Amino acid sequence: MLSSSSATVKNLPLKRRLCFLLKLVCFVSSVLIFCEFLIYYVVIFQCRWPDVKGGTHRSEKETSASVLKAIILADTHLLGEIKGHWLDKLRREWQMERSFQTALWLLQPDIVFILGDVFDEGKWSSPQAWADDVRRFQKMFKYPVSTELVVVVGNHDIGFHYEMTTYKVKRFEKVFNFTSGKLITRKGINFVLVNSVAMEGDGCAVCRTTEAKLVALSHKLNCSQQKPNHSNKGCSDVEKLPASEPILLQHYPLYRKSDAECTGEDSAPPEEKNIPFKEKYDVLSQEASQKLLWWFQPRLILSGHTHSACEVLHAGKVPEISVPSFSWRNRNNPSFIMGSITPTDFSLQKCFLPFESRVFIIYCAAGALLVILVLAHVQLLTPPFYFAQRLISKHKAV
C-alpha cells in the first residue's frame, strides 16, 4: 500500500503540488500572524477606559482635559544573562513588547507606571549585563512623546535590603530618573513614588535618605492641603502643591497577613492564599506601613511584588491594589490596570492580556488540522479515516 501511495504522490501534477504547498504556507503564516501579532489587538481592543464618577455631568472637553489616563503594570522581570535561557527571553520579551506597544496604540494613555522589578537580575548584574538589559527594556517599552513613562524601583532591580547598595540605587536612578522618594504632579494629581526596599527601618544609609525625603514630601503635601491636624508653622516658605490627596506608588505592598481575603481570577492560587506573608520580604513591616499611611494619608495605594491581584482596605478607608505580573513567565493571565484619575476621584479597570493556554490550544488545533490536511492530500490517512472516506463515497454513489 505504501508503494502505491508513493507512486500516487509522484504522479500528482506539479502545479497541484505547488498549489497545495502554497495553501499550507498561507495557513501556517495566518496562524502565526494571528497568535503572535493580531491576537493582542483583538484582546486589548475590548478594554475600555473606566468612567470617573460624576464625569457624565461634565462636557466632553472638560472631561478629556481634567482626567488623567494612566496605565499601571508591574513585575516585567526581564531575564538576565545568568538565569535567562535565550528562548525563554525571546518568547517572553516578544509577548510583553507586543502587549505594551498594542496597548499604547489602542488606548493612548497619558502616563504609564511600572511598579518595580523591571529586571530579574538587576540585583547582581554586572555593568555590561545591566547595560544590555537596559537596552532591551528601552526597545520593548519605547513610547511616543505624547506618553510619559514612570518607573518605580523593586527588589529585583537593586536587591533586597541586605543586597541593596548605593551603587545599585544610583545606577537605577540614572536610567529611570527615579529617586528613593519622589513626587510628581500631573493634571493636579499628586503621585508619591516610594523606594519600598529602603523602608527597612534599621537606619541604613539609603534608608535614612529615603525616609528624610518622604518626610519632607509629607510636610509639603500637608502644608498644601492645610490639614486640620497639621500645624501651619513652617509652611510659609513651602512650595504649594495642588490640594489633592496623593496616590502612593511602590513595589512592596503594605502589611497584610496573607492573600487569604483576595478574590478574582488573577488572585493567588488557592494553595498559596493562606501562606503567611513575611514582613520586609513579602510585604512592608507593620511599622513602615503605618508610617506611610500617617505621613501621606493617601487616597489610593498601588503596589506589585506578589505577582497576583489583590484589593485591601487599610484603616477601613484607604484602598490598596496589588497589580499582577505583566509577564507570562509568572502568570498564564497577565494584565494591567487602566486608571481614569482626577484630583478628587479615580476609577480603575483591569485589562487582561491573551491567556497563554489559549494560544497554546490554537497552535495545537492548527497543528492537528495541518497533519490531517497533509495526510488527506497524499492519501495516507490512517485506516479508520480511509475506511470512513470509502463508506461516504459508496453511500453517495448509491
TrEMBL record:
GO cellular component: endomembrane system; endoplasmic reticulum-Golgi intermediate compartment membrane
Transmembrane segments: 20-43, 360-387
UniProt-listed GO biological process terms: endoplasmic reticulum to Golgi vesicle-mediated transport; GPI anchor biosynthetic process
Keyword line: ER-Golgi transport, GPI-anchor biosynthesis, Hydrolase, Manganese, Membrane, Metal-binding, Transmembrane, Transmembrane helix, Transport
Pfam families, sorted: Metallophos
Cofactor(s) listed in the protein's UniProt record: Mn(2+)
Subcellular location: Endoplasmic reticulum-Golgi intermediate compartment membrane
PANTHER family: METALLO PHOSPHOESTERASE RELATED, METALLOPHOSPHOESTERASE 1
Protein name according to UniProt: Metallophosphoesterase 1
Organism whose genome encodes this protein: Pteruthius melanotis
Native organism taxonomy: Eukaryota, Metazoa, Chordata, Craniata, Vertebrata
